[in-house]
Design goal:
alpha+beta; Phosphorylase Kinase, domain 1; 2 domains; 5-stranded antiparallel beta sheet; 3-stranded antiparallel beta sheet; 33% helix; globular
Length: 242
């Protein structure tokens, strides 16, 4: 069965054996839905979007408590029609950091614990040659005492032969400067975004408005340097600093 046939088969299975619970997100690129398996009642996340699913495909073979499990991936690529992707993944039950930050800020110890867990998630992605490119409060779910990094729609594989990204994706305020076409993004773009996230968890604000103090403030400062070469070399170094 070719790629198009697999896409159509999976699409048919999803339409007949599952039912929609609710629409979680809709954009020009696609949609994210919470669905339920009719026979078992189990809930899953279904992603439909325009673009490749190369990072999701790599995640099929990996398991990490700080990443949702990727269960099925199918891509429909037809000449002149672009690429469509279908992804079925684990439903992570919990609250997003975005929701939790509306109620209260995090203590320094809570920030260290959460940031270390996100570093573990990023270590898996970076080991696969992937860059998340959209680390932000809406894309982190706290499942009990575990932080889970979600949503790889903006993720891409690092391609050393390219000078810059072919598509500019990310969230203003969290995206590193190089994500705006200055150069190709690599793992240090995620370190930049994680530094912003640490600051927001501590202060409720972007470091350009109010930077955290003390040791964690110095961690934020290094994570968010404009020149990628002056940031932490990788997330293991960042974990040591935390």
């Amino acid at each position: 069965m070719g790629a198009v046939g697999i896409y159509q088969w999976l699409d048919n299975v999803l339409r007949t054996e599952y039912e929609e619970v609710r629409l979680l997100k809709q954009s020009g690129r696609g949609s994210v839905r919470l669905i339920r398996h009719r026979a078992t009642g189990r809930r899953f996340i279904l992603r439909r979007y325009s673009g490749e699913a190369e990072v999701y495909r790599k995640l099929l073979d990996y398991s990490c408590p700080n990443l949702p499990e990727t269960l099925e991936v199918a891509v429909d690529a037809r000449p002149g029609e672009g690429v469509r992707s279908l992804v079925l993944e684990e439903y992570v039950q919990g609250d997003t950091l975005d929701f939790l930050l509306r109620e209260a800020l995090f203590t320094p110890e809570e920030v260290r614990k959460t940031a270390r867990q996100l570093c573990r998630a990023l270590w898996v992605l970076h080991s696969l040659g992937a860059v998340h490119r959209d680390v932000k409060p809406e894309n982190v779910i706290l499942r009990g005492d575990e932080a889970v990094l979600i949503d790889f729609d903006a993720a891409r594989l690092h391609k050393p032969e390219l000078e810059s990204n072919t598509q500019i994706l990310g969230t203003a305020g969290f995206a590193a400067p190089e994500q705006y076409g200055l150069s190709q993004t690599d793992r240090r773009a995620d370190i930049y975004a994680l530094g912003i996230l640490i600051n927001v968890m501590l202060t409720g604000q972007h470091p350009s408005q109010r930077q955290a103090e003390g040791r964690l403030g110095r961690v934020v400062e290094r994570c968010t340097r404009v020149n990628p070469a002056r940031r932490y070399l990788n997330v293991l170094r960042l974990m040591e600093a935390l």
